[in-house]
Design a protein that fits this description.
This protein is of the alpha+beta class. Helices cover 25% and strands 25% of the residues. The chain has two domains: 6-211, Sandwich (HSP40/DNAj peptide-binding domain), CATH 2.60.260; 217-314, Sandwich (HSP40/DNAj peptide-binding domain), CATH 2.60.260.20. The protein has nine helices and 13 strands. Strands 8-9-13-12 form a four-stranded mixed β-sheet. Strand 8 (217-220) and strand 9 (223-230) form a beta hairpin.
């Protein structure tokens, strides 16, 4: 699903006061109300404005939304952390919110799929509420994924002030990335999410691992892929060549008569685990350039001796 930038929808800054949000909402609601607007997309825009106001106009929902982080962009692919919205009952949207325009978006449902319980507990005491789970991406290179690494992560934590403005302060965490971590894996850090409300427990932080591109390898789960250039004579006659792996260079036997695109497997030479991944080597036959007269004579002699037509099977 796509990330919704509610601040952009209402045209306000992320540090806007609640009064500024209210004024922006009223102005846009009048502009795009389907009963009066002549805009061709008025109904869709009116629905978007109502949804944005339902979040930013409620200080608690706004704080929970801000806890997702500020690094997202409108339309960007969004995946909520596991347990997002935990601790809340179903959030119902009434006619006063949407008129006849239907439900809020899938993005809203993924973050606020369970609405907020009543703030008052027994005897009028505020209810304790668990903090919102947060998510963040952490970028590692393939060598770090292979051996594991400790990284320092800085988080921007939203905080709602008495004037209704949301401010942020930074905190740092030392995070251990285990050896063998794969692309897209989520690492849960219990109690490191948004703080609880009225003394409730903090939420969790989910780090999604992103592996940066490598100059030689590509990863697929725990398997590692490598395109290996070889000379024509190595392919024809067979050879033993050195091949890079994440754990260091190893010898690989090229079978006699090998072809481009042929795949060889180095078992257990991928990312560590139980079981470990493999390194899959794809052969790529590279012809040397005919850059000199001597090299050209060698190619002509080879053509005369072998009488080889690589396109024989294409004849009609």
């Amino acid at each position: 699903m796509e990330y919704k930038d509610y601040y952009k929808t209402l045209g306000v800054a992320r540090d806007a006061s609640q009064d500024e949000i209210k004024r922006a909402y009223r102005r846009l609601a009048r502009k795009f109300h389907p009963d009066v607007s002549k805009e061709t997309d008025a109904e869709a825009r009116f629905k978007e404005v109502n949804e944005a106001n339902a979040v930013l106009g409620d200080p608690e929902k706004r704080a929970a939304y801000d806890a997702l982080g500020s690094g997202w962009h409108a339309g960007q692919e969004f995946r909520p952390p596991p347990g997002a919205g935990a601790g809340f009952r179903e959030f119902h949207v009434g006619p006063e919110d949407l008129g006849d325009l239907g439900d809020f978006s899938d993005f809203f449902a993924s973050v606020f799929g369970r609405g907020f319980r009543d703030t008052a507990g027994p005897h009028g005491q505020p209810r304790r509420r668990r903090g919102q789970d947060q998510s963040a991406r952490i970028l590692v290179d393939l060598e770090e994924a292979y051996r594991g690494v400790t990284r320092q992560l800085r988080l921007d934590v939203p905080e709602l002030g008495p004037d209704g403005r949301v401010t942020t302060h930074s905190r740092t965490l030392n995070v251990r990335i285990p050896a063998g971590v794969t692309q897209g894996r989520q690492i849960r850090l219990g109690g490191q999410g948004a703080p609880g409300i009225h003394g409730g427990d903090p939420g969790d932080l989910y780090l999604e691992v992103e592996i940066s591109p490598h100059r030689h390898f590509t990863s697929d789960g725990k398997d590692i892929h490598l395109r290996l250039p070889i000379a024509p004579w190595e392919a024809a006659l067979g050879a033993t060549v050195q091949v890079p792996t994440l754990g260091g260079a190893v010898n690989l036997k090229i079978p006699e008569g090998s072809q481009s695109g042929q795949r060889l497997r180095l078992k257990g030479r991928g990312l560590p685990g139980d079981p470990p991944g493999d390194e899959l080597v794809v052969l790529d036959i590279v012809a040397p350039p005919a850059a000199t007269e001597e090299a050209k004579r060698a190619y002509r002699h080879l053509a005369e001796q072998l009488n080889f037509d690589p396109r024989a099977n294409l004849r009609v």
